Automatic annotation (TrEMBL):
Keywords: Cytoplasm, Hydrolase, Nucleotide metabolism. It comes from Rugosimonospora africana. GO terms for biological process: nucleotide metabolic process. Nucleoside triphosphate pyrophosphatase. May have a dual role in cell division arrest and in preventing the incorporation of modified nucleotides into cellular nucleic acids. This is Nucleoside triphosphate pyrophosphatase.
Amino acid sequence: MTQPPHLVLASASPARRKTLAAAGIDVEVIVSGVDESTVDLTDPAAFCLALAAMKAAAVAERLRGRPVRPGSPVLVLGCDSILAFDGQILGKPADRDEAVARWRQMRGRSGELFTGHSLIDLTGDRHADATAVSTVHFADISDAEIEAYVNTGEPLEVAGAFTIDGLGGPFVESIVGDPGTVVGVSLPLLRRLLATLDVPITQLWRP
């Protein structure tokens, strides 16, 4: 009897894991530990996809040779997100001052959030990669709101210095595109990547 696929998430992001769990997909989390500073690309789509592929490949290599149940495909998903704003590629802020400066620059304006997805099928030794992008319109928030938000520490932990599924939600006016891209994993894109590897996403739903 064929076993359901086993999905390994090569990311420490609680938001990604929560998004997948809400869609009925349980994952095993293995953090890649790759050195992100080795990627030096100016195109935001290529930049985040390269990082996602590095993370997936690092975890896949770690898993090769691990015993699996016959008929149980093992899939590794790597994701990485960045914000493209004013011609810059913005990941996590380095410190509190940078987070404040970013928000003063972003408020009342828009940026593009890119999330690269790299999916590796260890069982069949195949892979599928793609990048999703959504446009984010930021609220014109006050200096006091920026200070209060940065003081929570949340902006220091996420690409672009904001969330839509946490304390930063009230400071995002609207999103054009898949909101999941902004959270860190696009479920429609994941479905398409799985399909290219002949895995219906419904097979990943928990029983």
